[in-house]
Each structure stands twice: as structure tokens, then as C-alpha cells.
Specification:
By secondary structure, this protein is of the alpha+beta class. The two termini are 25 Å apart.
Length: 153
């Protein structure tokens, strides 16, 4: 669950300014099974009819709820980059970021019912509403290098 919030925060951070996302009440972030959604080559967003592939049950749900746009959550992610190594030298499987998407719905959509409906689909692993508030700034302490007690943190 923590990785979802981290993804939302990283995704929502735009330019280091605080604002309420205009899509906070319209968008959801979904983590789908491999192959459930595939974007056209060299595209990071598409409407439903432009997708290269989409699970039929998911497609029917999104059409019935008038989904407007599907956006790749991490457009630079590589599907094969899912193996990590711990400090002890053990291998572990990392989250496949290529299967995270933002789906936009029309203004006034009941997002709570969308979340519940998407979670009931077999091709969907996890769904979260888009966070409404974005961080204002990333702290930048120009004197950090002079604070000896904080070195190595």
C-alpha cells in the first residue's frame, strides 16, 4: 500500500507548487495484471479506442462509465526491470511499474463507486483515487553542507 501512495505523490508532484489537482475527483490510479492494458507504441496516453490491447471486461466497465483518457503512470518504466538486490545480496522482485495507469472520468463521476467497481474486476489488482493536494515545495537547505551533525543522512 505504501508504494501506491509513493507513486501518487511522485506522480502528482509537478513543478514544486501547491495546487489542488483539477482531476482529484475524476481520476483513479489502477494497477492491472500484465497484458490487461497496452498503450500504442510511443504513446503515453490514449482514449479507449486507441489502446493496442485491453481486457474485454475492463473495457466494458470503462465504456459503461464513460472513461475519457488512460495515462501511463510511469512512461519510462521498463517491463524487464523488476529484479532488485538487497544489501545482503538477495534478489527480490520489484513492482512492475509498466502496469500502473491513471484513468480519467467525466466531471461529476462518483469515483467511490468507480473504485469499488474496478476492484471487483479480475484484471485489476489495486485501485486508488488520485490525491487532491500536491506538495508545495521540496525542501532545499542551502546550508545543509555546513551542518556536520547531519552528514551522511
Amino acid at each position: 500500500m505504501i508504494w501506491v501512495w509513493a507513486a501518487i505523490i511522485l506522480w502528482a508532484h509537478v513543478g514544486g507548487q501547491l495546487f489542488v489537482s483539477p482531476y482529484a475527483n475524476r481520476d483513479v490510479i489502477v494497477y492491472v495484471r500484465r497484458g490487461a492494458i497496452e498503450m500504442p507504441v510511443n504513446q503515453t496516453q490514449a482514449n479507449l479506442d486507441e489502446l493496442s490491447q485491453i481486457d474485454s471486461v475492463l473495457y466494458n466497465f470503462l465504456v459503461s462509465h464513460s472513461a475519457q483518457l488512460i495515462i501511463k503512470g510511469f512512461p519510462d518504466a521498463v517491463a524487464g526491470d523488476t529484479i532488485g538486490y538487497s544489501p545482503q545480496g538477495r534478489t527480490f522482485r520489484k513492482l512492475d511499474l509498466t502496469n500502473i495507469y491513471e484513468i480519467r472520468f467525466p466531471e461529476g463521476t462518483q469515483i467511490d463507486s468507480i473504485v469499488a467497481g474496478l476492484m471487483s474486476l479480475p484484471s485489476v489488482i489495486l485501485v486508488e483515487k488520485v490525491a487532491g493536494v500536491v506538495p508545495e515545495v521540496i525542501p532545499n537547505d542551502g546550508l545543509f553542507s555546513l551542518q556536520m551533525s547531519l552528514m551522511g543522512t
